[in-house]
Every structure is written in C-alpha cells, then in structure tokens.
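Work Package 4 report. The design task specified in the project plan requires that, given a folded chain encoded as structure tokens, an amino acid be chosen for each position. We show below one input record used in the internal validation round.
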C-alpha cells in the first residue's frame, strides 16, 4: 500500500493542536497521533513508580520496560500504560508539572521519535496527522504538509483555563508560560522553520481553525488551489 500523507503540526500549549488535529483527522478519514500523550505517559509511569523525574538516569531506566499504547483512530482515542487506561490521568496537573523534565532528556526524545516514525509508517489510512512540538522539524521534516499552529498568549491562556476547573486563571497562566519556556529550551516551536506554514488561530473559532487546516490538506493533496484570502 502507498505510504500515508503525513501532516505535521507543532505549536505551543493551548494553541489547539490536539483538538484541531483530531477533528481534522476525523473529517478526512485520517489517523491521528498525539505525541505529547507519549511524553505524558512516560511521566505518568515515572510517577507511578515514585521515580525522581529530575534525574535523567532514573528516567532513562524507565524506558527499558515502558509498556505504552496509544490509539491513532481519532474516533477511538486512548492512551494506556502497563495495560491500564491512563487517557484522563495523563492530563492531571501532577503529570503536567513533571512532563517537561522527562521530555528534555535526549535519550527519551530519541526513543520516542523512533517510535513515532514506526507508528507513522504503519498507518493504513490515506493520511495521518501528527502533532506536538518537534514534528515539523525532527520527527517528520519531510512531511507533505507542515503547520505551525499559533495563537496569542492571551487566547491560549483563555482556552486552557476554560478547560481546567478548580485552579485560578492566574495559576493556569503561570504554569502554561513556565512549561512553554522550559519546552522552548529543548525545541523551537514558537517560530516556523523553513517551509512550515503558520496558521494563527487567535481570531478563529474552533470550526474555522479545523476548516483552515482541512483546506491546507486539500491543497497538499493537489485537490484545491491555494486559498488567497
Ligand atoms: O496539550 P499540551 O500543550 O498541554 O501538551 P502536550 O502536547 O500534551 O505535551 C506535553 C509535554 O510533552 C510538553 O509540555 C512537552 O514537554 C512534551 N512534548 C515534547 O517535548 N515534544 C512533543 N513532540 C510533544 C510534547
Ligand atoms: O493541544 P493544545 O494544547 O495545543 O490545545 P488543545 O488542548 O487542542 O486546545 C485547547 C482548547 O482550545 C480546546 O478546548 C479547544 O477546543 C480550544 N480551541 C478554541 O477555543 N479555538 C480554537 N481556534 C482552537 C482551539
């Protein structure tokens, strides 16, 4: 079978990557890979074993038997670790608080990048949307379509705090900003690399953002002209 059309989407937290990618994949009949979920799953596994996540060696040791599974069907999205469904648990603040420390370990990145490439190559759909921080630059620099999804800091904070209850908007904003700052030291997802198309969703609602990405996929497939507006 032909290899799938790969759509790479990067961007900061709260830009809409996960939700927009999943909805776009659903509408196009593509697979969907949430790479951040893998970093979160490893962070979860470390916490479950009381590993000191500030110790790179301790984190690296967890890769040996990291038993992780992720669904790439956008209609059946799940993440499991050791057979346990952790789809919701990996979003908990305690995981979010340590995920950047886990993700900055080079051995962790090399391990997961290789895994993501295997998952992409194994996709049986006509396309796969892969989202994260380093997809356009490291995981799939040869992707047919590469997008940097941005939004103003204010819009991103607003979207995130609308999702999280029980924490003040101010706390959410601070945590998001410090995680973006930590992650930016490892990969640059604030500036579009050469050939990467920026989609600024600040003034787009969710459906408009999905429509913008769908249009770009149509162009990449050679099925539409480049939108001029
Ligand atoms: O959805 P949200 O923006 O909260 O984060 P995520 O996409 O679930 O990613 C969680 C964390 O994983 C990020 O804060 C990064 O530390 C890391 N990550 C990464 O290093 N590289 C990726 N390609 C994706 C995520
Ligand atoms: O994955 P990432 O952290 O980039 O963002 P997300 O978790 O997919 O999106 C954060 C929230 O923003 C979700 O509740 C989306 O529905 C919302 N969103 C929005 O309100 N307007 C957009 N144009 C895009 C996303």
């Amino acid at each position: 079978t032909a290899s799938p059309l790969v759509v790479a989407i990067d961007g900061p937290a709260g830009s809409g990557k996960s939700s927009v990618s999943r909805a776009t994949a659903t509408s196009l009949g593509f697979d969907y890979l949430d790479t951040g979920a893998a970093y979160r799953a490893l962070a979860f596994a470390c916490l479950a074993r009381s590993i000191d996540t500030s110790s790179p060696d301790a984190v690296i040791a967890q890769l040996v038997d990291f038993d992780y599974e992720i669904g790439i069907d956008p209609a059946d999205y799940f993440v499991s670790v050791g057979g346990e469904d952790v789809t919701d648990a990996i979003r908990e603040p305690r995981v979010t608080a340590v995920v950047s420390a886990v993700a900055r370990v080079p051995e962790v990145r090399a391990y997961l990048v290789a895994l993501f490439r295997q998952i992409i190559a194994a996709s049986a759909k006509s396309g796969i949307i892969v989202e994260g921080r380093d997809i356009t630059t490291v995981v799939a620099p040869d992707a047919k379509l590469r997008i940097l999804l941005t939004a103003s800091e204010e819009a991103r904070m607003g979207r995130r705090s609308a999702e999280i209850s029980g924490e003040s908007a101010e706390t959410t904003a601070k945590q998001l900003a410090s995680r973006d700052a930590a992650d930016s030291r490892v990969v640059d997802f604030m500036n579009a690399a050469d050939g990467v198309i920026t989609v600024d969703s600040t003034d787009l609602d969710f459906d408009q953002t999905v429509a913008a990405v769908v249009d770009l996929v149509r162009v990449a497939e050679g099925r539409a002209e480049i939108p001029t507006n």
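DSSP finds nine helices and eight strands in the chain. Validation will be extended to a larger panel in the next phase.
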